[in-house]
């Protein structure tokens, strides 16, 4: 089960073996939704879980539905998506339309029955058989209406969700056919928004489409009944609303663009966790991007408020004009004609009020479908250059006339690979070498079909014979178990699996992991080291039994001993007979290969076997640089120690590692799920966000005026119709007409004012809670939050939940307040004009409603929480898959990914099924209970009342009572559901942040010396976990260069994390320039320290913005550092400092990204510099230049370097040796090596013996 699922006790698990609902029930049970009652009862007694619900039938599953839809889409590729959906789902729409037509006919029958009942009241000699017949007809019509309405509602929602899930799969399917590396038109944030926002709008499509057909039928029927078609145009209000739709359309489009920008920034921030170096950009995000988005939402909701005004005004104008024209034509406004029209108008009014909502839904859906269609029409991979696999051919792969680009603008300046001609025989071991940015990784990507070619030139030809396994330079790791990552959708084969584990050197890792290969890996492999991720990626490749292995520098992430084992035992022996292509910077590996290609500036400048290449001048120059680097180490008595950490170190330090892994083995937290009713504190907090009590008081006054105007209007029309029964004759016809029209305008005006006030207040509260969430997320502790919470869960709250607060919650508040006030006013008025005896059936009815409501609301609440929780895995899996598209396609596992994604959609879909069934059941039961009031009202009117006007008013109200109550409870349910979104957002405002307060005011500039002092310092990852640094004490003088050495898991990185206060100390302290850093303001501390990390941090934007994000340096200073960091060639070959960098730096090589990060660090000019193996993916020559630049430019800085390779600490003044979190040795290199009992000497000897 997914990590977002609920942890359950044994007693619950036993109960899950028996599913609560059986879908294959009798037609009678389906008709009355009897099958939903067990889950309602279960929800009332205890909390629900998704395991209690049956899986969807095969024909209902999203994957099967998508297969059918995809078939139609492939046939009609140029077809408009809207038309295709309507065509594919036509039979479902027709079925829904027919049932909705039955709803309409049963609704329209009630006003006619009211007309005949009022006519019956006029009769002196009453036939009680006829009275019984009227009562029976009303009950029958009401039952038909209830059954048809509940099933229509159920079907429309299920059909809508089916459309949504199918389109979600189609978007995923499209993602698996495009390259985010070469197709930069769409960012990950925009594509995520398609899944999270745009496809969600499709749920309302069936209901909106049917409404747009039904409402004109209602209007036509009304016009026929009124018999004044030539004088009355009841759709004038609709036309006015239609005029506002264009503006609404624009506002929705603008809002969506701004939402895309916000999501893209959110994705970048959360994907990089805590971007320490760019922390000052948070103000721009909160105050600019979000404000622009809110402005567009405000414009959009203003159009909505106008539509609300017209929705209320139109029926009142129609009714007033109908009565006025009817009277002017010489007719008498009698109750038997008036109240049926009022009944029809009440039905029409409800529809007209739904019309703007349906129209707006369709407009939003149209825009969303256009965005989706634009994405579906975007460029796909250029797979047409692949020839058919030739099993008889001797070559494993060939490239002919290979000219490849990363951008669609295929001009000569954008050419990445030039004149590539390669032929690799089956079973050969090939090495590809070259400098940083020379095109080595691009060559692999071209083989995988990720690059594009110029269709105006000769088309390249790629022949590939056999299946492919790909090990990327940046391994793609799923949020799944170790075993699932290795199997990657393939069936389990024990021998093959053991072989993959052994030859990827994962045996000891699995012994250390608490749950072995069933250990859950965090998102992006957060609880694994770089070497572990690389070896899991390699194990996946071995297990695939592929014939061709594309290996993009996987050995750079592992230590020397492991690297040699993998090279000799795995690549050479195990994979003998397989075709292997290895990208590497380590020239000492080349002698083991069969053939070598040397790439420079995108061209193959030299090729041949190892002996031939040794005679090549260019290769000799590169080899000399490599040998010089080795000899330099030997001359300083470090010989060929390339790595300080070996496999033996893992064994010796396994206790420390086991503690660390245990701390992280159950790393990902289960998404918190509230239980029971929403706490009153949540509602109080929401009101506190609104703050302005004066504003709330004015809103209450507006609501009271609106209610009073409704009551007066109803009494006024009763008075108007009573004058012809000689019961009153107080005013003229014109007075009645204008007063009634005025009252209708007052109702509409105050409905508009109410909507505007609610909208404006909701926007303010939404803005405030969003800012509070961002503030908490920005400063949330990395180890305790970002490493433990999946990105999809965070994105779900910042997209779906925030969207509910932006757009939906104010509509729910308005609807609930409207319907509740209507129930109160209508019932009070009914009692006033009839008899106080009506209180008894109303009391019984509301008592039943209360009981049913408690049962329903609890189930609805539980299902809503489950539904929201089940969304997070959908988004997590989607974003995870976007990051691994190349790997997924290389292993031909697109179908597996589609099925996994479909399963997550279906998990959510089955909860929606039960939620919708519960809602429909509630509608039916509520309607049946209302028959008590209907029967009493009819009986009272027929037997006791003598005033036809009062009788008409009572019958009209009684007929709409259950609808009003149902809409009230529905709006309350929707409000609760959106309050759950608020509750979830509120949780993220309570995230315990890092200690941000400034206790000590430091003198500027600080630090100016760079002295660092650890005093009895201890720290752990999280509370109640073992210490990872224990009583650490040492001092670093100003401008000293310190190399930090230790075995795997010793706590080296924890030192730098502690200096940055990503980890807060348990005891002791750290001083910088004699200032306790725990008392320094967090932003000041981190902005004063430069970090150079092993994993480069790249932002979307220009190279200039990446190098100097805060714009504190001149162009001359930037260019000087660019030259020193060997980036001048990159700048000259592209668009200078204005060269755009794609999302995540996808248009740069791994080495180029590291060089940019190094240049950024140099420009920052901090007094303290922390380096964590920042030159891992750089060739030998460039690394030498960078190391010299670092030593020269940071000569006046205090530098702490975590040592993975010996050449990175050769220049250091002192070496700090740490073991199991404790300081073991601290001194100069010569001093430690002269002490043969030192730990450093032991590590040194192990490396020499291994070599």
| Sequence stretches where pLDDT stays below 50 over 5 or more residues | 1-22, 227-254, 268-287, 388-392, 628-665
Query: What Rg is obtained from the alpha carbons, in whole angstroms?
Result: 36 Å
- Order of adjacent strands in the largest pleated sheet: 5-6-7-3-8-9
Which structural class should the secondary elements be placed in? alpha/beta
Number of strands: 21
Question: What's the rounded overall pLDDT mean?
Answer: 77
Bin the helical content.
Answer: 55-70%
Categorize the overall geometry.
elongated
In DSSP terms (H or I, runs of 4 or more residues), the helix count works out at 40
**Strand percent estimate:** 5-15%
Q: What composes the largest sheet?
A: 6 strands, mixed
How far apart the termini lie comes to 46 Å
What oligomeric state do these chains adopt? single chain
Domain ABC transporter: 399-626, 1012-1245
Family: Belongs to the ABC transporter superfamily. ABCC family. Conjugate transporter (TC 3.A.1.208) subfamily.
Organism: Paramecium octaurelia
Subcellular location: Membrane
